[in-house]
Amino acid sequence: MAIAGAWVSGAYAMEACSTASHPPPANDAASADAPIEAATALDSGGPSDAPSASHDATVPPEAGDASDAGDAADANDAGDAGNASDAGDASGADALTDGSYACPTDGGLPAELSCTGLYADWATKTVSPSAIPYTPGFILWSDGAVKSRWISLPPNTQIDTTNMDDWVFPVGTKIWKQFALGGQLVETRLLWKQQAAQWTYADYRWASDGSSAPLLTNGEQNVNGTTYEIPSLNQCPSCHGGRLDAVLGFDIVGTGVPSAQGLTLAMLAGQGLLTQPPPSTAIAIPEDSTMLAAAALGWLHVNCGVSCHNANPNAMGGPSRLYLKLLAGEMYPEAGVAQVSLLDSYTTSVGVLSNLTPNGQHYLRIAPGDAGQSLIPLMDTARGDASFKPMPPIVSNIPDTADVAAVMAWINAL
Ligand code: HEC
Question: Where are the domains of the chain?
């Protein structure tokens, strides 16, 4: 049975990213395999980030109908996009008579996480060897969720790094990001490059007992009675559309700085996975005399710059001309000692008057020496406050107080 499913980015690269929801063609999807046992804890496999709150919820597993048998665990096959039908068309979900599910065999988007290729064995939640764990050196705040990430590149492919600021991934690439709250898995997001210039977005919602994780199209508010929010699939391109090839955190900064874990820039280069090796695999964010700049700039890069506040045509924050994305060319030690004060992140923010006038007042984006009068941290910590527009404007309901404090410390030291 067809399930309304994942958004496909389609030709979003040519669309303006001004719509919060790209109206993508509906997909349908297919289903998966047998409900098995629980795995309520954090998943095996990769490095994960921050700790946090707790919840979970229930989404009715999308049952399918029919029957065919599928070989679930074969990730890269599923990723073979050659036959991906139009825009994220998914494959038939097949419920077997015993209530379990068979994975689709037509290359379409599965309706169950177990069929996406992340797990070699669903029963034991054993991650497939082709899904390589990584954690970017700087991560997006997700209201305290702990996240794990894996990337799967099809065999014998490379990431096109001709443009070091916007890598182009091979067709068939899959990246998963898994979220846990209070030690319990909640959602696993999938970015899947089914065809050139076509990324499929999917989100799988874990059952509280870990037995299944069906596709969730419309998101979920107040997960487990908390403020945690799972985005709907039409919200994914609001952020991911701001990059030429959709991927946000697996970039030269995220993989190249010393705090990167798992699959790093050095490993990518060493394994021949990049068409153009970078001049250096040791990426360093410039520092200034405060010694507080790099942490602040790294946080701003991944939380604001990679998605929206950059100069790409579809970046939603582009029109503001506040550019917080760190550019590759500034990060190599060989490039000389890049000065903080020359970075876009600095020149478009420090001492720059915002065109927003919250409470009828004018603010500098960053007022040197005065974080309390700097609009960036004021907006970054605003939530449900009518005075300041909260940033990011979607999905987050709890501010990243600790990390914004680091940004404020830098501002106060300027
Ligand atoms: C508010 C902006 C935002 C929204 C909305 C959003 N993402 Fe992301 N996503 C990010 C950022 C920033 C990163 C990189 C940082 C990280 O991994 O912590 C990321 C990372 C990812 C990754 C890891 C690969 C990568 O791009 O770095 C996947 C997979 C992913 N997101 C899937 C999704 C899906 C699917 C949706 C919609 C259900 C979605 N995201 C919605 C901002 C967003």
Answer: 1-236, 284-413
